[in-house]
Specification:
Length: 431
């Protein structure tokens, strides 16, 4: 468990933006012997070998090729993005202080972004002698702050406050006349400000992951939603993919832009996964439609633990506890893709492997959130179980989860990769 949580912390710290998360995952895959491919290049795939491909520098797909053709797929999908503030490329001076312009990315708890060290991370497109090149960049220092208004000027602040992001959520860089962001980025990128053509930059919380509790049972970190699931399923994939049953191709997916609907070329609602599967089948044989019919997918995105101060917002019949195990999520409106079939498959695999499972339903009348499973299933029609790690303060600048649940997610995903699931008829499986 100590190794698992340390690797999770390393993943979180290495991933201040989706571009960094993808680069860290690619480095892990390369170190494990997986071969990088280009979408725009030819693919020659060998049985027993692992490969990966990226799109937009922020989404990653990795797989292993089984011997003798592909008869089924085992997929674990997570997302690389988290709610944050995207920089607009503008700056202004107000009352002697330089501030950067931001726009909200995803839904977040705005109050949690105040009065903490922040920095800037993402990618820049720079001009080179050969053309244009995307480069990841992170200004690795305590650089920015969004200051609160003093209590003395807002005596009703503790009674509730409606935030105006355009006025209140623009971070302070420094005193007027300080070095500007273009200069700082150019310095970090090893170029001059005029060589930076464009950027995709977000604010990143500087607080490192830390363990809490008498014996470190909990942990607190930025971006737990959903990098904790991305890290846990990657651990499972690297450990279990070589042990997949005969004919089964394991796939690990980390997709971007889930927090803003996934409707991008690199999101779950794109053709990225389907395009990749089609190319793999073209190179390796086996019928794609038949392999998908014999497939199974975990949509791994975090779940709400029951809040100790607000149990009334959760369904009292199925409380979710930190440390209680992986959460299996259901929703009548199919915002979670779990069905009786996919839920039963997941429960049975976990039962056989001693992994604890909890169940989440939204409180009746509360719509709740959604995730990438239902969107991915539009183009990759396999049974999907929506699962996640229980956490508190979802979409806060820093969030809280349990160490034991991260370990449980690794075990659950690994068990699914190894499981000899075989569809013998519609709705009938042999395990």
């Amino acid at each position: 468990m100590q190794d698992t949580i340390q690797r999770l912390f390393t993943f979180l710290e290495a991933s201040p933006s989706p571009f960094h998360a993808a680069a860290h995952a690619a480095a892990r895959l390369t170190a494990a012997g997986y071969i990088p491919l280009r979408e725009g290049g030819p693919w020659a795939l060998a049985p027993g070998q692992g490969y990966f491909v990226t799109r937009n520098g922020s989404s990653v797909l990795a797989w292993r090729v089984p011997a003798g053709g592909i008869t089924g797929w085992r997929i674990a999908a997570s997302h690389s993005d988290s709610p944050t503030w995207r920089l607009k490329g503008t700056a202004a001076v107000a009352e002697g202080l330089a501030r950067l312009g931001t726009e909200g990315y995803g839904g977040m708890l705005m109050a949690t972004w105040f009065d903490r060290p922040l920095t800037v991370a993402g990618r820049a497109v720079v001009r080179t002698a050969a053309g244009l090149e995307s480069r990841n960049v992170c200004l690795d220092r305590d650089l920015l702050v969004i200051p609160s208004l003093a209590f003395h000027f807002d005596r009703a602040a503790n009674d509730g406050h409606k935030y105006d992001p355009a006025r209140e959520l623009q971070p302070v860089l420094g005193p007027a006349g300080c070095r500007g962001l273009p200069e700082l980025l150019a310095e970090a990128l090893g170029t001059d400000p005029g060589g930076i053509v464009d950027c995709d930059l977000v604010l990143a919380v500087r607080q490192p992951p830390t363990r809490l509790g008498p014996d470190g049972e909990l942990y607190l970190a930025p971006r737990i939603d959903d990098l904790a699931c991305a890290a846990a399923t990657l651990e499972a994939f690297l450990a279990a993919a070589p042990q997949a049953p005969a004919g089964i191709a394991p796939l690990w997916a980390m997709l971007d832009t889930e927090e803003v609907g996934s409707g991008t070329r690199q999101g779950a609602d794109s053709t990225f996964v389907r395009d990749t599967l089609a190319r793999i089948h073209a190179a390796c044989g086996g019928e794609l439609a038949a392999a998908l019919a014999n497939g199974f997918c975990l949509s791994a995105d975090n779940a709400h633990a029951t809040h100790p101060a607000h149990p009334e917002v959760s369904d009292p019949a199925c409380p979710v506890r930190l440390g209680g195990g992986v959460v299996l999520k259901y929703a009548a409106r199919q915002s979670y893709a779990t069905t009786a079939l996919s839920g039963a498959l997941f429960r049975e695999v976990c039962r056989q492997n001693g992994v604890p499972v909890q169940v989440f339903y939204n409180r009746t009348g509360t719509p709740g959130g959604g995730t990438l499973g239902r969107l991915l299933a539009r183009t990759v029609p396999v049974p999907v179980a929506d699962v996640g790690l229980p956490q508190l303060a979802m979409h806060a600048a820093v969030e809280t989860a349990a160490v034991a649940d991260a370990e449980a997610m690794v075990r659950a995903a690994a068990a699914c990769y190894r499981a000899p699931l075989q569809a013998t008829a519609d709705g009938v499986y042999r395990l």
